[in-house]
Backbone:
């Protein structure tokens, strides 16, 4: 083998190593350090899934509350709410408060 062949082999190997190292560096940059890196995308995807789940739960709660608001209350329910929540009583009635232990 001539000296020129050896130099050419060394140059080709060096070129391959540099290209490979550059490719690895670019991949590492995109996976870890870029502003839209793979790690950031995974974190954002998880957060989006959690927010969508919470959003659907809140939408169900809103629809349940809308149904409850649109429903008319009977006289018995109004009386029960007045007695329990607002501590109202009928005339001549004695109310004894119950303290839970």
Residues:
């Amino acid at each position: 083998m001539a000296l020129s062949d050896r130099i050419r082999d060394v140059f080709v190997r060096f070129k391959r190593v540099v290209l490979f190292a550059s490719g690895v560096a670019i991949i590492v940059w995109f996976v870890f350090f870029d502003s839209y890196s793979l790690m950031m995308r995974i974190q954002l995807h998880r957060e989006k899934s959690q927010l969508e789940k919470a959003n659907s739960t809140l939408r169900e709660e809103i629809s349940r509350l809308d149904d409850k608001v649109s429903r008319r209350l009977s006289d018995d329910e109004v009386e029960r709410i007045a007695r329990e929540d607002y501590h109202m009583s009928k005339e001549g009635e004695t109310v004894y408060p119950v303290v839970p232990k």
